[in-house]
Inverse folding.
């Protein structure tokens, strides 16, 4: 049975699963589907188009599936899909999609810290940690297990690779490839994320191969095309090396220097 505080409003067309807690002054709009075992603390707003999984905790003042901050949005029916077991802290805002993609996606097991924003049509993976007041513009993609520190600004259409660590206060308008540390001003490659990879169980051999790939890419003095070709020829094509190669080859905005 759901526990809905008498000072909360739940639209009669909203669909709630079982064992959800809805605190005082929460607002749940029409065209909302919520799974089981979620906790919405006080003053949480769930707007139309929200699709929320199971076991999430959403703290005071968060607003999910908000109207996109995009002048091209004309009220089309779009959604915001949020997975399972996320911790969504105070005053987080997540917009729903636009006609561009139709959906904003946040995966599972993420920590979204206070006052951060995910704009329309973004895709956030699983196991990410995103710091206080970080802001993602529209259609940003963040792959699994990225750590993005506080007050980071991401330009629209950028992509962040898996197992990345981004320094607090950074801003970027190009893609950040996987397994690295990115920081300084202007933002640039600052080495392989050795500690993060070790904590995630990557072997010493795999880490060394990743390090060698980025030595070729960033320190070889080659063009992007030539560097990628050398990585293909010089290193075994493990899943990690293939991921780096595919990420860079598909990058439309280019990667940070």
């Amino acid at each position: 049975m759901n526990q809905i505080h008498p000072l909360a409003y739940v639209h009669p067309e909203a669909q709630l699963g079982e064992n959800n807690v809805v605190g005082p002054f929460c607002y749940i709009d029409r065209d909302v589907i919520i799974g089981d075992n979620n906790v919405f603390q006080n003053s949480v707003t769930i707007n139309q188009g929200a699709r929320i999984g199971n076991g999430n905790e959403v703290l005071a003042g968060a607003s999910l599936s908000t109207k996109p901050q995009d002048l091209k949005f004309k009220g089309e029916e779009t959604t915001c899909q949020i997975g399972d077991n996320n911790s969504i802290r105070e005053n987080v805002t997540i917009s729903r999609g636009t006609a561009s993609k139709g959906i904003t996606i946040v995966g599972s097991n993420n920590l979204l810290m206070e006052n951060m924003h995910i704009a329309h049509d973004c895709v956030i993976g699983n196991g990410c940690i995103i710091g206080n007041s970080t802001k993602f513009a529209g259609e940003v993609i963040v792959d699994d297990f990225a750590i993005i520190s506080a007050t980071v600004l991401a330009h629209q259409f950028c992509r962040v690779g898996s197992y990345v660590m981004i320094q607090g206060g950074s801003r970027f308008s190009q893609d950040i490839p996987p397994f690295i540390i990115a920081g300084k001003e202007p933002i640039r490659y600052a080495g392989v994320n050795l500690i993060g990879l070790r904590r995630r169980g990557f072997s010493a051999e795999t880490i060394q191969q990743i390090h060698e790939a980025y030595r070729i890419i960033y320190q070889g003095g080659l063009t992007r095309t030539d560097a990628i070709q050398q990585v293909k020829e010089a290193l075994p094509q493990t899943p990690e090396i293939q991921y780096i190669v595919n990420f860079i080859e598909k990058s439309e905005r280019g990667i940070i220097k």
User: Anything to note?
Assistant: The chain has four helices and 28 strands. The two ends are 53 Å apart (CA to CA). Residues 209 and 235 are 7 Å apart (CA to CA). The first strand starts at residue 3 and ends at 4.
